[in-house]
Write a structure and sequence with these properties.
The complex is a heterodimer of chains A (292) and B (687). Chain A has 292 residues and is mainly alpha-helical. Chain A contains eleven helices and one strand, in the order βααααααααααα. The chains are: A mainly alpha (292), B alpha/beta (687).
Chain lengths: 292, 687
């Protein structure tokens, strides 16, 4: 029979679209595929660092004296202290890919809690939280980073604290906006007339419907955070030496930029590709959400 | 051929396909019709039948995925499918104009009305519209203060006024063909009556050929000379409006008509019948009757092969192999099934009221300065009524009359500003839902209007129902809850396998069924249904109504049914309250409210409804719109629009409550005898 009955499995509504970020949808966006590929690549590099670059990234090679340029033994060349740049980039992927996600997940916990509370309850709760967010967002981010790290001292933990302090207000504002919209939906009214608690409504009724925009935002923020960590390293506020740190490597290479550009180029390229990976994923997810 | 006799628009065996994933979806499968000059042709059918697709194809706006895969669209003898972009520009908006459903998105919010009107080009050479001409046209469509409106932005006009502007723009181009795609669906009944009046007037004056697309058969009957009934991309029956809507032969047309509630009688006298199933999605040209799965008359041997269009004795075209037998079979079926002898809900022994409202009012502050409201809006004022178990109270009124605020107050989503609410004998005034006891919460539940937001799209149907049973039901163990969820699914006649489905994947009708099931999870004493069917298609609407009433009967629940649709309220309600400006202006048994004496507002509402039993209005439509005037709290809120206003009296003093009969109340300055002389007689065309 040619008249096929309409299947009840027809996707409907923009919220429904956001929910189906399943693996089978990867094919729909090449952007998403490329972005994910880059991220997976760097994750593998970080994970398999001992296999890819078995030597200690802080080893100084006497053989590299006068031979800093890329060669067969040192693929990316050697730096001003005659350390292997390839090994330092491979090992340098580890702190970035641990600090950035951990710090961001913590920021999300704080930001979502504050944003949902403000958006759901409104009134004076919203006034107080929103004004606090406005104050925090009014400082230039880079100044905040410098002030925080300079006063706390550079360490992986303190960088995480700074990221949390600086990212959560923006997340809170985003979540507040989404909550303001979602709380007017009838299913929220239905939950209230069913006698559900505010916590249940926020976590079970509202939050799952916000995940589409939040996942996209998370990927964008990963990019920003990786840049911020790089900038801190470049300003000398990154991981204390001699730990391999991409931003720090660029900083150390600047005096010799004219003679040996490769010393700055390779770590800079590492930062750029990883950030691009996250941005492409964010764009791709948006594409998939818009298409359906 | 003389130009007068030639068809303005002639659609011949049109076939439209949309690219969808691997294959195609056939949206239009061999549709033919033509419009003679000056004619108004109606296209009716449920959503998804291809009505709007045809309009879009005529405008050549099918988008990237759509294409005309067969047939022709001849406009003034020229095939629109084959013309160049340049030729198309000369036709679009100039020789063919279109009016969409939603005027607020049809107008550009960043441009003044004047600037948009002057963009319209007209005549052979595409002359720019002069200011004078634009003002003149705005005056012709009855916009108040046309000079001032030219300088205003769309958001400064009401919905009805916006639609008038869109219509004015359409007529500015002096088009040969005007396409109207559900032009009044988003409007209130009284405004709809104004717009329909305007369109009929413009057509009479200018002789414009019109293609009128609507799902509202009453409107089509009022406006159109001929009508085509669309189903699954085909016109299944077309002919003169009187013939098609008066004596339909196609089972689908008959089904559609059987879904429409009447104004002149209630549920006691007849039952609505819904059409089971849903419109099929065609992946190829149909080789059988498209209606075969939903048709009571279908016989596989006769209907399972390609269906040719045949001509009936009254000149209609019909696409049905069994049309000569259909009416007789239906009559026979009805006589065997016992006909229309349904008993009214037996008047329940009136014990204590489930809900009683006493002088409830609600005021909203607009803006605050140092904690004090600058101004306030009255949403509800002195609303009082009692509601008993098993009773259905219908609340009608246009948007902005305060009916939804009242629902929210009863539910505890809002706190009233004054008055008293008693629920099951205990005072709940000022108690929002979270302050109510578990028992009070269980006993008052709500069904919402919009099927797309009523269920959480992130949850599965199983989770939604289980949660409702957990919070509202008496079941304790997981097994008991499961049994209860299954009982609820049976109650709303859905298969059990929907439990695993995500709520986002259900159709509008299915979502609303789940919403009904959820509301009845705790066998509540009171359910408030706020426009539960107004976003649904005709055939689905009827099914939901029946379901709601069956569920109500099952647990002897009191029902508050809020709607702007008078005929639906007439069908479901035992008692009816008519609201205007936050007040109940008339209340009584359904029979009393729907027959004289009327409150002038109720009378105006009734004559605005383009029912099938009420094809032409008894009087000019009510002028103005709700909310166009500030409510000063004194005098009658309806006075500014009332055709029977007593100057110097109605606007100044609060009207008294008249009691024409036991249980019937009218809030009006006119005496009962005065009101009895109403001109609206609903049963005029019936019987």
């Amino acid at each position: 029979m040619s008249a096929e009955a309409t299947s009840p499995l027809v996707p409907a509504g923009p919220l429904a679209a956001a929910r189906r970020f399943g693996l089978h949808r990867l094919r729909e966006s090449r952007t998403l595929c490329i972005g994910l590929g880059i991220i997976v690549f760097w994750a593998l590099v970080a994970l398999l660092a001992p296999l890819i670059a078995p030597s200690d990234p802080n080893t100084q090679y006497m053989s590299a004296v006068g031979h800093a340029l890329p060669s067969k033994t040192h693929w990316f060349g050697a730096d001003q202290l005659r350390r292997d740049i390839f090994a330092r980039i491979v090992w340098g992927a580890r702190p970035v890919l641990v600090i950035a996600p951990l710090a961001l997940i913590s920021s999300y916990i704080i930001g979502v809690a504050a944003g949902m509370t403000a958006g759901y309850f409104g009134g004076w709760v919203d006034d107080v939280l929103s004004r606090a967010i406005d104050v925090l967002l009014s400082f230039p981010k880079i100044v905040l980073y410098v002030v925080l790290i300079a006063s706390l001292g550079p360490s992986a933990f303190n960088i995480m604290l700074a990221v949390i302090f600086i990212s959560s207000p923006g997340i809170a504002r985003l979540v507040r906006g989404i909550t303001l919209d979602l709380r007017t939906r009838d299913f929220v009214a239905a939950a209230r007339t069913r006698g559900e608690s505010a916590l249940f409504i926020m976590l079970v009724e509202i939050l799952p419907n916000a995940r589409g925009p939040l996942i996209v935002d998370f990927c964008m923020r990963m990019g920003y955070t990786i840049i911020a960590i790089g900038v801190l390293g470049f300003l000398g506020l990154g991981l204390p030496p001699p730990n391999p740190d991409w931003g720090g490597m660029v900083r150390e290479a600047t005096p010799m930029l004219v003679v040996y550009p490769h010393m700055a180029l390779f770590p800079a390229a590492a930062i750029v590709t990883l950030v691009m990976g996250f941005n492409l994923v964010a764009d791709g997810l948006q594409e998939v959400a818009d298409a359906s | 051929m003389p130009p007068e006799a030639r068809a303005v628009l002639s659609v011949e065996e049109l076939e439209i396909r949309y690219a969808a994933g691997k294959g195609d979806v056939v949206a239009i499968a061999g549709t033919s019709f033509s419009l003679k000059r000056g004619e108004c042709f109606g296209l009716v059918g449920e959503s998804g039948c291809g009505k709007s697709t045809i309009a879009m194809a005529i405008m050549r706006c099918l988008g990237k995925r759509g294409r005309i895969s067969g047939g022709r669209i001849l406009f003034d003898g020229q095939d629109l499918a084959g013309i160049s972009a340049q030729e198309l520009r000369a036709i679009r908006g100039r020789r063919i104009a279109i009016v969409y459903q939603d005027a607020s998105t049809a107008l550009n919010p960043t441009m003044t009305i004047g600037a948009q009107m002057r963009e319209v080009r007209h005549g052979e050479n595409g002359e720019v519209t002069s200011r004078e001409r634009a003002v003149q046209m705005l005056r012709a469509v009855g916009l108040p203060d046309p000079e001032g409106a030219m300088r205003r932005f769309p958001h400064q006009l009401s919905g009805g006024q916006q639609q008038r502007v869109v219509i004015a723009m359409a007529f500015l181009a002096e088009p040969d063909l005007l396409i109207l795609d559900e032009p009044t669906t988003a409007l209130d009944v009284t405004v709809e009556a104004q717009i329909v009046d305007l369109l009929m007037h413009m057509r009479a004056v200018r002789g414009t050929t019109m293609l009128f697309i609507s799902h509202n058969l009453g409107l089509v009957r009022r406006m159109c000379d001929r009508v085509g009934v669309m189903y699954a991309g085909q016109i299944v029956e077309q002919g003169l409006t009187e013939a098609i809507l008066g004596a339909p032969r196609h089972p689908y047309t008959r089904g559609l008509l059987a879904c429409i509630p009447r104004l002149d009688r209630g549920r006691a006298a007849y039952r609505l019948k819904s059409i089971a199933g849903r419109v099929p999605r065609l992946v190829d040209l149909p080789q059988t009757c498209t209606f075969i799965d939903r048709c009571a008359h279908a016989q596989a041997s006769i209907c399972g092969r390609p269906i040719a269009v045949e001509r009936t004795p009254d000149g209609s075209d019909i696409r049905c192999n069994r049309w000569p037998q259909v009416p007789a079979e239906e009559a026979a079926y009805q006589s065997t099934s016992g006909g229309a002898s349904f008993a009214l809900n037996a008047p329940a022994p009136k014990g204590a009221a489930v809900l009683s409202l006493d002088q409830v009012s609600k005021t909203y502050a607009i803006g605050r300065l140092l904690g004090r409201p600058i101004a306030s809006i009255r949403a509800n004022e002195a609303v009082s009524f009692d509601l008993h178990a098993g009773e259905t109270l219908g609340i009608v009124g246009e948007s902005g009359c305060g009916k939804s605020t009242l629902a929210r107050i009863i539910m505890g989503l809002e706190v009233p500003s004054g008055g008293r609410i008693t629920l099951l004998g205990s005072d709940v005034t000022g108690q929002v839902t979270s302050r109510r006891t578990r028992d009070q919460i269980r006993n008052v539940q709500m069904v919402f209007q919009n099927p797309d937001t009523t269920l959480n799209p992130s949850h599965s149907v199983g989770f939604i129902l289980d949660r409702a049973v957990k919070k509202l039901g008496s079941a304790r163990t997981a097994r008991e809850r499961q049994a209860e969820v299954r009982r609820l699914l049976d109650l709303v006649r859905l298969p059990h396998d929907v439990l695993q489905m995500s709520a986002a994947r259900l159709s509008g009708g299915q979502k609303q069924r789940i919403a009904v099931a959820r509301a009845f999870a705790g066998r509540p004493s009171l359910v408030v249904a706020d426009e539960p069917t107004s976003a649904l298609d005709t055939s689905v609407k009827t099914a939901i109504l029946e379901l709601l009433l069956a569920a109500q009967k099952d647990s002897d629940t009191a029902l508050i049914f809020i709607s702007h649709d008078l005929s639906v309220v007439r069908y479901v309600a035992d008692r009816v309250a008519v609201m205007y400006g936050g007040r109940i202006v008339e209340m009584g048994e359904a029979v009393q409210v729907f027959s004289p004496p009327f409150h002038p507002y109720c009378e105006a509402l009734l004559s605005s409804v383009p029912g099938l039993d009420n094809p032409s209005p008894a009087r000019p439509p009510l002028a103005g719109e709700v909310g166009a005037q500030a409510l000063n709290g004194q005098g009658c809120a309806f006075a500014p629009r009332c055709p029977r206003v007593i100057e110097g009296h109605c606007r100044q003093t609060v009207p008294p409550l008249r009691r024409p009969a036991a249980g019937h109340e009218i809030l009006c300055h006119h005496s009962v005898e005065d009101l009895r002389g109403g001109t609206f007689v609903p049963a005029r065309n019936a019987s």
